[in-house]
From TrEMBL, chains A, B:
Pfam families: LacI, Peripla_BP_3. InterPro entries: HTH_LacI, LacI/GalR-like_sensor, Lambda_DNA-bd_dom_sf, Peripla_BP_I. This is LacI family DNA-binding transcriptional regulator. PROSITE patterns: HTH_LACI_1, HTH_LACI_2. Keywords: DNA-binding, Transcription, Transcription regulation. GO terms for molecular function: DNA-binding transcription factor activity; transcription cis-regulatory region binding. Coiled coil: none annotated. Residues 4-58 form the HTH lacI-type domain. It comes from the Bacteria.
Length: 337, 337
DNA sequence: GCCCCGATAGACAGCGCTGTCAATTTCGGG
DNA sequence: CCCGAAATTGACAGCGCTGTCTATCGGGGC
């Protein structure tokens, strides 16, 4: 018993193949009665349209690309999960493309990729979101794309992002309410957009509460665990000792744990630490890390839906920034004596 | 200027489209001179065959599926990297499929997936490798598949695995040479194949050196960081104190770090810890974790190549077990006084 | 009751490639 | 130099679906 095709369905429903096609594609001008007949036949035969044929015939490919550049596995996996799920729901396939944004030949790599694979659209994740070469190539290929949480070129494309400012402000409120008044901040390289926003948001929220920038101890890392250790050591030298440190990502926050342990400083009794990302490492330290969860999978989901919707010619309005929320675990507690 | 198709190439080379097709598919019986002409034309026009048309016409899909079931992001990312790379090289696309092996409806989920997507083959990762429902569905669909490091049903399919036994034996040699004589082992659930092998390999290698099983302290975790803390606390109660602990994966090894820190036991001065997997967490503890690296990406690469080769009708011989190697970092040192 | 027009359904021709099979060329041996 | 077999090339018909265009239907306005 071979797989049913559109002709089988048409035959069983006593209609033309084109009508079946109309139902499949949700086209207008199909009488309800006919639609019902056809849907019954599809159901009965377990018919699934053949993607290759559909693609060949219509020019659409039913493939969404996911472009990523090797950031943390946690992040990528979450994006993957969101895009995958959205693609499945919409009957699309997901094709993963890994590029090296920093490579000088990135332009050619993109060309090759775009020529070879026919895609209906592409989801772009940081840091590829901020590479002019990548964006240029995409635009030259006339391929619709959505960027997730880009740091540069706002307005250049459809975009889905998180509300970083509000998120950081929540972190500050949480720590403030626990009684903390002496703060440290571990940022990433100044060139990194996300790092900058988190920095600015942190300082701004504290300023609102009357804490001057000069009162806040600051160290710079590079988003790695190791750099977090160094930053932690540096900050924990301060006298009187800080009671709370906010790190711009979880890996650096975990590094602070190690620095604290080496200095005999107990978390959370003597020091509260808050991270950002709710990445996988947050549950791999003890006590588990209080951190800001970004709805990465949801953002990815939205990105795919936006892409598919825009393909249908409908003008799609930019989705609003997504809300983050604080995951309270054990690493931040009331200020000690 | 629209994209070139096979007819354009044929025209430019002054041959039939079928001949071009022969060159594209590397079929025999093409004279070198003709092949050269055609390749020149392909080059000149920058021609890339259309996957959808190829697929529709030949029945092959040029798509390889990657089936995974939500294990650690690190592991999955490595598999992803390997399969992705191999697919690219062979001009295939990779489609990710996420399933829940434990779900009671896994059979139906597999059916639905296999019906909808036409694939040329599938790479299956643990724990899906050991689910009869998954394997049954694959076989019913008559889809070639390769399992990576399966724990059950040896011989049921093509398989790529690592040489766990030899790997664990290396761990033992390393610790033994550092002077350790009092060992602890943290395993996973006994039902888990990988865990069992690592357990048996560890005990066997020590037995060779005259250490009786009864002398080895043992605790059971479930591969999570948290369970590692518990296991660590339990093992570190032993008197005289153990000098080396081997954990069946890195997450649990990291848990032991936390337990040790809480008990004031310094690593590596007072305790050596070795993990398994060389996962991402290995570099997110301090000192960094000495651990066994499995060539996961390479294994995935081989799996894809095996799949593609077997598709061509050629009988493919089972690839040999892949070699692991020990990554020496700071967590295991000479036995203290 | 008739005409006109929009709504609905169907016929048909490809999309770009490969499988099949037939036509042609080449080559070795007699 | 001729013949048959093997090697090489090409013609052609789809693969399963959708775009385009045409035919038909149904209903409102006069």
């Amino acid at each position: 018993m071979r797989k049913a095709n559109i002709a089988d369905v048409a035959l069983r429903a006593g209609v033309s193949t084109k009508s079946v096609s109309r139902v499949l594609n949700d086209e207008p001008n199909v009488r309800p009665q006919m639609r019902a007949k056809i849907e019954e036949a599809i159901e009965a035969l377990g018919y699934k349209p053949d993607l290759a044929a559909r693609s060949l015939s219509s020019g659409r490919s039913f493939i969404i690309g996911l472009l990523f550049d090797n950031p943390s596995p946690n992040y990528t996996m979450k994006v993957l999960q969101g895009t995958l799920d959205a693609c499945h729901q919409a009957g699309y396939q997901l094709v993963i493309e890994n590029v090296d944004t920093a490579s000088p030949t990135i332009g050619q790599a993109m060309e090759a990729m775009l020529q070879h694979r026919r895609m209906d659209g592409m989801v772009v994740t940081p840091p590829a979101t901020d590479s002019p070469a990548v964006l240029d190539a995409l635009e030259r290929a006339n391929l619709p794309y959505v960027r997730i949480a880009p740091n540069k070129f706002p307005g250049r494309s459809m975009t889905v992002s998180a509300d970083d400012q509000a998120a950081v402000s929540d972190v500050v409120r949480h720590l403030w309410n626990l009684g903390h008044r002496r703060f440290g901040f571990v940022g990433g390289p100044a060139s990194h957009g996300a790092s900058m926003w988190r920095h600015d948001g942190f300082f701004a929220a504290l300023a609102e509460r009357g804490v001057e920038p000069g009162e806040i101890q600051e160290a710079e890392g590079d988003f790695t665990f190791t750099s977090g250790i160094g930053a932690g050591r540096q900050l924990l030298r301060a006298e009187p000792r800080l009671t709370a440190i906010f790190a711009a990502n979880d890996d650096m926050a975990a590094g602070i744990f190690t620095a604290a342990a080496q200095l005999g400083i107990k978390i959370p009794d003597m020091l509260s630490v808050v991270g950002f990302d709710d990445s996988w490492i947050a549950k791999s330290v003890w006590p588990e890390l209080t951190t800001m969860h970004q709805p990465i999978a949801e953002m990815a989901h939205i990105a795919v839906r936006t892409l598919i919707a825009s393909r249908n010619g409908k003008a799609v309005k930019e989705p609003a920034p997504q809300n983050c929320h604080l995951i309270v675990r054990g690493s931040a507690g009331p200020v000690g004596q």
